Each structure stands twice: as structure tokens, then as C-alpha cells.
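[job 0417] fold request received: Iron complex transport system ATP-binding protein
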Amino acid sequence: MIPAPSELQPLELDGFGAVRGSVALSDPLSMRIEPGTVLGIVGPNGVGKSSLLGAIAHSGVASYGTAAFGGEDLGRSRAKRRAQLVSLMAQDHGAPGELLVRELVGVGAWASSREDPHATVGSALTRAGIAHLADRRYATLSGGQRQLVQLARVLAQNTPIVILDEPTSALDLAHQRAVEQIMRGLGNQGRIVIAAIHDLSLALNTCTRVLLLDPGGASHNGAPHEVLGADRVFAAYGVRTTIHTTPQGRRILAADD
Ligand SMILES: Nc1ncnc2c1ncn2[C@@H]1O[C@H](COP(=O)(O)OP(=O)(O)OP(=O)(O)O)[C@@H](O)[C@H]1O
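[job 0417] inference complete; emitting C-alpha cells
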């Protein structure tokens, strides 16, 4: 299902940031994220990527400033309304293991009250490539299979803002490529995709914008090849890197030694 034109709105962060234990994790972020943007959030372990995603989704992470979608302050929206606007695939897949895969994916469709949850679930399972797992219990799945179920749940929620926390961390090469294509496809539909990503090559090849969070609290937002240039990456990670381009045009960011 493609978002209605009225759902193609920018997401504006105004002096925004996540808070953990009454401490702000980054300097205030102010940025406008246009419809169709696939934004990669990168930065070292513990810098606050997951917290920022959770804060934007207002899913139990405290925040300061505002995150507004089409002028609507998400922090003031009712939970049901927010579930129609924002879906979150968290890193910690704390789902009840006794649920069947199709029931868990159905939670996504139910959260946003889609008209035909059955069809929505079927389509989400197919897009995530896991239709064959529909009647398996979640607890019996492998780590990568669980990650794809969580992706299908988010697809079934069918929101204009899709937030993914390290969506490919448990996936094999073929599934990584499939998820990369799904992310681009969501962007092409005009959705806003925001993903925390450790694989900087993935960020280079998949994202239209990258936000690099520095350990010092600063952030850099821009075109992927600019933000992931050698100097910025060294400042953030302490590793010397180069961006290589394959004959087929894929970019690979690799350490120099
Ligand atoms: N539930 C929590 N309660 C309190 N502090 C937390 C909680 N979750 C994370 N933190 C702290 O917030 C900071 C940012 O953590 P966060 O998980 O957002 O970082 P990250 O950049 O996503 O890390 P990683 O790359 O390792 O996943 C860390 O110092 C972490 O210890």
C-alpha cells in the first residue's frame, strides 16, 4: 500500500534529542527530513543512535525539543495516532515467543487499524520473504528470521515514517540486499526511513542522507559520501578509511590497514 499524498509530509526535528537518566545524549538536533528520505544514523557504540530512534518514535525514551510530522508534534499525538504515523523496528526484539509469526506481524496491521489486516499481513510476509514462516512460533526462529519478522511487522504497520534499528545486523548477504532494496523502495514511495546502521558501506549505498553522531555530542548531517569522508570517520571512530568504488558502481568503505 502506498501512502496517501496527505501522508507525504516532512519530519522536522527542532532542538531535539534523547535523554537517558536525565542526561541529554547529544547536542540539540534541528533538521528537516523530507518525504522520500532514507536517513542513515551512524556513529560509535553507545553514542545514542538507538536512543534517538526511540525518542523520535516516542517509544519509552525521554526526549527534549520537538519532533513534528507535517506540523503535528509527535510527542503530543495520541498513541493510536502515532502508531499510524511511525513504526519502529527496535534492536531488542522482545516479542512473546509463543505467538505465531502471522499473529506478530498482525500486531503491526492492528496498531494502525488497516482495513484488511489479513491481506496486509500476507503482503508484508511476502515482501520480507518469509511467507513460509507464517505458522511458525516466534520462539522457534533463528536470529535472522526473527529480524525479518520484525521487519514484516513494521511493513504491515504501513506508516509514512519507518524507523529501523540496525535492520540487517543478523542477516546473510542475500537478505541484506533484500532489506536494502526494501528500504530504498519505501523511500521511493515517499516514506521517511530512518535507520541506525553500523555497516558504513550499507549507509553509503542505501541512504540518501546520513547523520553521523560524534561521541562529543556534535552531529553531521549531509550527503552520505560527504559525511562519511575520511576525516569525519576518523574523528568519530579513530579509524583511517577510504571509500572504494567497484566496477559496478557500489561503494565500499574500508579501513586502510
Ligand atoms: N534503557 C536504558 N537506560 C539507561 N541508559 C541507557 C539505556 N539504553 C541505553 N542507555 C545508555 O544510553 C547511551 C546511548 O545508548 P544507545 O543504545 O542509544 O547507543 P547506540 O549508539 O545505539 O549504541 P550501539 O551502537 O552499541 O547499539 C549509552 O550510554 C547507554 O549506556
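[job 0417] notes: The chain has nine helices and 13 strands. The two ends are 46 Å apart (CA to CA).
[job 0417] exit 0
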